[in-house]
Structure prediction request, 140 residues.
Amino acid sequence: MGRIHEWRGFAFIGVVLVAQAFVDFAPAGPWDSRSFSRGMIGLVGLACLYLAWFRFTFDQKGVAPTINLWSNPKETWLNVVLVGLGLLMAIKIAVWQQWSDVLPEPATMILAVIGLLIVLNGLYVGIITVGVLAPSSEEE
Prediction:
């Protein structure tokens, strides 16, 4: 049986919009700023990519990856933290290598926020599944 919630449309639109943010082709918009329009289009693209990832991963509509959706949170929370830290390290390398001429100006800041949210989500799941807030054997 196939997936119930289709994700490919969101992924395609997200890739197109994010790719568009790397070229200087955007209308000035009502705020009379082409760079602001480019940034807004890129943010909408990132939102579409997130929705595609959520639908692909959990096969349902939504935006919050609550713990009851995870198949095995006790074992995978560390992977989530490592992905977030990897994203933060990639951003740091991009800054060290001065890739600012390739990346849009606020890209590193936006990706840093996303990386920190990923780390925070993983740490929260770790704390409540195997950490100090995990249910003890007395409570079960």
In short: The chain has four helices and no strands. The helical segments are 8-20, 34-58, 73-96, 107-129. The mean pLDDT is 88.
